[in-house]
Amino acid sequence: MKKNSKNKNHPELRAGEVFITNADESIPDHLLTERTGWKTARPGKAAYDSDGKILIGKRPIFIQRTELEDLGVDPDKI
């Protein structure tokens, strides 16, 4: 599997979002914005490593593409 392809095409990814990172699942939802700094942070349920294997104890974090674009970052290059 191509590196990070599972996360670029994550099955939980919604329209207008990008996968940003995997985070410890112990972080409560209400602290995601505070701890990550991303205003539009949304947690998923299943985190994957770069080989497409499920990571135990982690969950994916998605943000809106526009949040990156507002910072001058091309979401397709992360």
List the helices and strands and how they pair.
Layout lengths: L4 H4 L8 E8 L7 H5 L5 E2 L14 E7 H6 L8
Antiparallel strand pairs: 1-3, 2-3
Write a concise synopsis of the structure shown.
With 78 residues, the chain is α+β, with helices and mostly antiparallel strands. 19% of the residues lie in helices and 22% in strands.
Spans of at least 5 consecutive residues whose pLDDT stays below 50 are: none
Number of contiguous helices: 3
- Give a short account of the largest sheet: 3 strands, antiparallel
Alpha-beta classification: alpha+beta
Mean pLDDT: 88
Q: Helix fraction? A: 10-25%
Describe the fold and architecture.
The chain is an alpha+beta fold and 78 residues long. The protein has helices at residues 5-8, 32-36, 65-70, and strands at 17-24, 42-43, 58-64. The protein has a three-stranded antiparallel sheet. The mean pLDDT is 88.
Identify the notable features of this structure and list them briefly.
78 residues; alpha+beta; 3 helices; 22% strand; globular
